[in-house]
Structure formats: C-alpha cells, structure tokens
Design brief:
Blueprint: E1 16-21, H1 25-31, E2 52-59, E3 68-74, E4 81-86, H2 97-110, H3 119-136, H4 144-152, E5 155-156, E6 165-166
Parallel strand pairs: 1-4
Antiparallel strand pairs: 2-3, 3-4, 5-6
Helix pairs in contact: 2-3
Length: about 170
C-alpha cells in the first residue's frame, strides 16, 4: 500500500525523540532516579557522539498511582532531547501499545471493549483509527485490514492531535 504524502510528516527540528528500552517497569518504579539507564553511544537523530544526561522527566503509566522518572539525554550537536521510555509505551499514552492494539482488535472483531481499561480511552483510540482509515478512503467502520496496514507501515493511528505515531 502506498501512503499519500499528506499522511507522512517529517520530524520538526525541535522535536523530542523517544529512546525505547527493554526495562521492567516495576523495577523502574522501585529504583526511581537510581535506575541504571543505558546511555546511547550515538544521537539517534544526527549520529553525534557527545550525548550527555539532561535530567529526568516525570511520566505516568497505567498501573502506577504516581509518576515514574524517565531519563533524558541531550545532543549538543543537533539540540535534540531524547527521553527514555519502557519498550512498548508510546509518547503521550499511559497504556502500552499492546493494550491499545488489543482494545482495537476486540472492538473490530467482537464489537466490545477490553475489561479493566477505561472505556473512554478505548473509544478515543477507536475514533482516531476510524478517522485515519477514512483519510485513505470513505470508511464507515475500520476493519482488521486497516489496522494491520497501519501497523505494518509502523504507524500507530490512535491520536488525532499529532501526526500518526511511528513505532
């Protein structure tokens, strides 16, 4: 499938990039700022080798009543700030990408919602998927093929406020 140019958005120069790490979120919660984040050897944006620590940022995740500290790195060459995140969690979402995907699959396949996940969040994700699918053609209800085509293109179409999140 070929994506229309208006759906492919370039990253702005001042964007904050995410660095995904395979970490145990419970250990991250227990250790706080003492968690041993791995420093990338190069800047993911420009390839510069002079990354340095840029403090911590509080981020909220489902299942934790308080925020967790996420390490940030700054590149002095391109001025990008990279925020670490646990693998599977996307920018702006408290739920993992796996939970969001399973919610969308349940809605598409069974016309129901996943128990234990806030219904309003699931409705928002589904509404966004419907909006993104409608941009490709006149679609009343998105199908499994729509969701899989977005995911195979490494696009996670569950927000209407930003460009689709790249995964």
């Amino acid at each position: 499938m070929v994506w229309p140019p208006h759906l492919l958005v370039a990253l702005p120069e001042s964007c904050v990039l995410l660095l995904h790490f395979a970490v145990d979120v419970k250990v991250l919660n227990d250790r706080g700022k003492e968690f041993p984040w791995l420093k990338p050897s190069r800047c993911p944006r420009c390839g510069g080798v002079r990354l340095w620590g840029h403090g911590f940022a509080p981020r909220y995740f489902e299942g934790f009543s308080e925020f967790l500290w996420m390490k940030r790195f700054r590149c002095p060459d391109c001025f990008a700030v990279h925020t670490c995140r646990p693998l599977g969690f996307l920018r702006g979402f408290r739920y993992s990408a796996c939970v969001i995907r399973s919610s969308l699959l349940k809605k598409i396949m069974e016309n129901g919602w996943v128990r234990g996940v806030v219904r309003q969040n699931q409705q928002y994700w589904y509404r966004c998927l419907r909006t993104w699918a409608s941009r490709l053609g006149n679609v009343k209800l998105p199908s499994l093929a729509h969701l899989e085509s977005f995911i195979s293109a490494r696009i996670f179409p569950v927000t209407e406020h930003f460009a689709p999140l790249r995964i």
